[in-house]
Design brief:
Layout (H helix, E strand, L loop, with lengths): L1 E2 L4 E4 L10 E4 L8 H10 L2 E3 L6 E6 L9 E6 L2 E3 L6
Antiparallel strand pairs: 1-6, 2-3, 4-7, 5-6
């Protein structure tokens, strides 16, 4: 999940895939709740792995430029839902 100060985007990074499933919240704030993230993942056919926790990091939009806008990134382990997308 990521944001550069605008809409939030949740995506599932799939190894070897040319496109990743994604979901957008068209708002800069508030940060999508865990319940909202869980629902978005289910819409995409995935769920959070039991026991995994969301981890947050920040980066810059322009690599190496500390004056560049901040890019917030959150990650969590997911797995496919049994039976596909709901």
């Amino acid at each position: 999940m990521s944001s550069r100060g605008g809409p939030w985007r949740l995506y599932v990074a799939l190894m070897g895939a040319t496109e990743w499933p994604d979901f957008r919240w068209e708002r800069p704030t508030p940060v999508p709740t865990i319940t909202e993230r869980r629902a978005a993942l289910a819409t995409l056919g995935f769920e959070q792995v039991p026991g995994s926790q969301w981890s947050w990091i920040e980066d810059t939009v322009t690599h190496g430029d500390d004056a560049s806008p901040v890019l917030l990134i959150a990650t969590v382990d997911v797995r496919e839902l049994t039976g596909g997308a709901s």
